[in-house]
């Protein structure tokens, strides 16, 4: 097993990606530079493996923590595949439909939604991604790693959490959506699995970059945590360093700050 000088975890949207949901030329160069210095770059995202692999195809990245810690790939090999129990999937979808909210079911390779509303359209427009296909029976034929509920009605978040708090974890990651995973699963949990497997017990050279609520957990398991300038105030408060935003070389500035450039 290859030994690395350190490891860096990058969120995608609002962090490594620009407003067009692409890795800029500047950030592509930075990833190449880190690899030459024997640092392992890992994607830590709520996005699906399929999306991550498409986004990073121009890079040498082959490790990622996806679907908010539910699916972990290390150096090209699947290491963890956590799924939501089928009966829980059905319960969430039934309850959400009663509230009027659609839910998408995510697997490592595909995703489908039971119906589409305005919140769904707004989320995928924000992510510069195509709308998922509609298939209300998709979850009956596949194992589901993550549920994605679409809602702009923040008051309903509490109803969901009260009903399912004992068995599921919820991350509101945009004004239009909530990611749902198994209880106590998170980017942090996936990162811990990866670090243990790579025998990286010394956390001195571990870094995490993010901008969203679901990034706070991974800040807890690394030595140095970087909040992007476009992050919310709660994310900035949880970080050890606040850099520029993702459109003004925020990652470059943070790497300079920590002496990695």
Automatic annotation (TrEMBL):
Domain of life of the source: Bacteria
Keyword Manganese on entry: no
Keywords noted in UniProt: Hydrolase
Keyword Hydrolase carried by entry: yes
Entry GO CC: cytosol
Gene3D superfamilies listed in its UniProt record: 3.30.1240.10, HAD superfamily/HAD-like
Molecular function GO labels: magnesium ion binding; phosphatase activity
Protein name: HAD family hydrolase
Organism: Tetragenococcus koreensis
